[in-house]
Amino acid sequence: MIEIYLMTAEHTYWKETISFAERCLWKAGSYLAKKMQENEFNEWERVCAVCVNGKVAGFSTFTEKDGLSGQYDFTPFIGFVFVDERYRGKRLSELMIQKIISYAKELGYKKVYIMSGEIGLYEKYGFVKLGDYETIYGFIDQLFVQLIAEVNQDLELLRHLDKLHTTELGVVRIKRNLSLDIDDIAEWCKDKIGSAHSIITRKGKNWYINVNDIVITVNAHSYTIITAHREKR
Predict the structure, then answer these.
(1) Rounded Cα–Cα distance for residues 56 and 49 (Å)
(2) Where are the beta strands (DSSP E) in the chain?
(3) Nearest Cα to Cα of residue 230 among 218, 209, 215
């Protein structure tokens, strides 16, 4: 029998999950165990445990932030996804992810993120790679996103963020409109488009991305970032 629990410190399986995390072969397990012992989670954050026949077989977390550098505003994150070797092949990771995504949707989130060095794993669960990002640990890791809103019209754009580019005229126009003093305008726009707060709509030949009082216009055929400007009030 397989059961999935989203836990706070008062849950029956909290201490057993700590013990399981301490004993597991994955070195990040001991770090999670310490976080759980000290209950370093906010009001809505959760630790997810998957149990098989009453015994903890794996864990994951759902938190506001993960290992991504603080310069990015992506949120929330699934993290610490681990299943004991004896229970692999039963799609337990997928079950935990589905449970967490359902909870995230209840909280009103439209996107969920995950960081991982795995290639081809989280894509099977519906995630799309946004790119490679600097972590708080000093190395580069992959950032993935999954849309959990009812409308998925922005999925195509997120799947092809690597194609986004702009022209010299576009760079001048965006810098002027937003009073920006940065070198890589295309990368700046990619971060905004992929962030948790972006709302993407398709109208005719263009995508329009509303994020943090800014509207970014992208040609849907060439993936050219045409312009960006402040929203008119």
Answers:
(1) 7
(2) 2-7, 46-52, 55-63, 77-83, 111-116, 128-134, 140-147, 165-166, 199-203, 206-211, 214-219, 224-230
(3) 215
Task: Collect all residues with Cβ–Cβ distance below 8 Å to 41 and sequence separation of at least 6.
Answer: 8, 9, 35, 47, 63
- What pLDDT sits at residue 233? 61
The b/e string for 169-198 (b: 16+ C-beta within 10 A; e otherwise) is: ebbebbeeebeeeeeebbebbbbbbbbbeb
Distance in angstroms (rounded) separating the CA atoms of residues 50 and 96: 7
CA distance 33 to 45: 15
What is the structure's pLDDT at 59? 97
For residue 69, give the amino acid letter.
S
Identify the pLDDT of residue 151: 45
Q: What is the pLDDT of residue 154?
A: 60
Q: Kind of pairing, strands 77-83 and 111-116?
A: parallel
Nearest partner of 145 among 107, 97, 99, judged by Cα: 97
pLDDT at position 189: 94
pLDDT of 124 reads 87
Which positions of the chain have pLDDT values less than 50? 151
